[in-house]
Amino acid sequence: MRRRDFIRLASSAAAIASPAIARAQAVWPDKPVRIIVPFAAGGGTDLVARPWADKLSQAFGQQFIIENRGGASGLIGAEAAAKSAPDGYTFLVAAATSVITVPLLRKVTYDHTSFQAVGRLGDILCGFVVHPSAGVKTFKETMDYARANPGKLVFGSSGPGTVPHMRYEMLKFKTGVDILHVPYRGGADSLQDLLPGNIHMMNEPNTLPHVKAGKLHLICANHTARMADFPDVPTLTELGYPGSDMPLWFCLWAPGGTPKAVITKLNDKINEISATDDMKAKLQLAGAVPVIQKPEDVEIFRANETKSIAELIKVANIKLE
């Protein structure tokens, strides 16, 4: 075949393939999408992820399927997501734990380039709760009891390096109290021990319905402002511990290398859904509020959070147990 004829045929093939590639990108998703939740069902991450899976399934006409892969403070699920093909059919719902804190505290198989930000799914409004069996109802009473009875209060977290664990470390660092930390495989597991009084304290969104039911006492809020559902509960700043706010935020992440067109399309839809009253109501049931951000905004947010958490780990000398 003459060179001129080969070039002509190659050009024709490219012209045919290009529209096909464009159509493939335009119709994404054309099959079910997997969303990895790196904690057990019923925990804070799961509570936020499930309404989003439902809404995205409705919006795109394909099933967005939650896959709970708990263990190792979210490490198992995060590693699975990082190793997945960057084809737009696997995503990770995660907070600081998986993408920031655990990599700062231990050696992992991924780094900050392993995940691309897709969008913010919501921020959880939460605080420290205490079981009535401890005999305390307020923040002051809890701290007084902890000082008078070192190691008697037991705090359950969703695992080493998780945001609740970091909040516990912040509380110990700021107040100097001696409270025992017991890590679990997730917030659902620790709640099972909290409700019967086997442990005394938690800081997870799945505790708030039980606060409303009168089964637990909310002693403070981990935010710059008071929580709308609990207007009488003070923030840690109001209680005399400024700089103790540590937000529990959730984002959707894609494996590094996922096509930008897919990320942009998904981010646009997430932001559109976040602005609806229906989604705001669904997030409120999980104790969360929507946050609308572009992927580049989320990346800036992640960089700032990484700096703050790294500083806390250093000054409080935090190590994995």
Shape descriptor reads globular
Residue share in helix:
40-55%
Biggest sheet, spatial arrangement of strands: 2-1-3-10-4-11
Mean pLDDT: 89
Number of helices: 11
Strand percentage: 15-25%
* CATH level-four homologous superfamily name of the largest domain: Bordetella uptake gene, domain 1
What is the name of the CATH class of the largest domain? Alpha Beta
Main sheet specs: 6 strands, mixed
Radius of gyration: 22 Å
CATH topology of the largest domain: D-Maltodextrin-Binding Protein, domain 2
Count the domains: 2
Q: What is the straight-line distance between the termini? A: 69 Å
What's the count of strands? 11
Return the structural class: alpha/beta
How would you describe what is shown here?
The chain has helices spanning about 5-25, 45-60, 75-80, 95-105, 140-150, 165-175, 185-195, 210, 260-275, 275-285, 295-315; strands at about 35, 65-70, 90-95, 115-125, 130, 155, 180-185, 200, 215-220, 250-255, 290. It has about 325 residues and is of the alpha/beta class. The protein folds into 2 domains: about 35-125 and about 245-315, D-Maltodextrin-Binding Protein, domain 2 (3-Layer(aba) Sandwich), CATH 3.40.190; about 130-220, D-Maltodextrin-Binding Protein, domain 2, CATH 3.40.190. The strands form 3 sheets. It has a 6-stranded mixed beta sheet, sandwiched between helices. A 3-stranded antiparallel beta sheet has the order 8-5-9, covered by helices on one side. A two-stranded parallel sheet has the order 6-7. It is globular, with a radius of gyration of 22 Å.
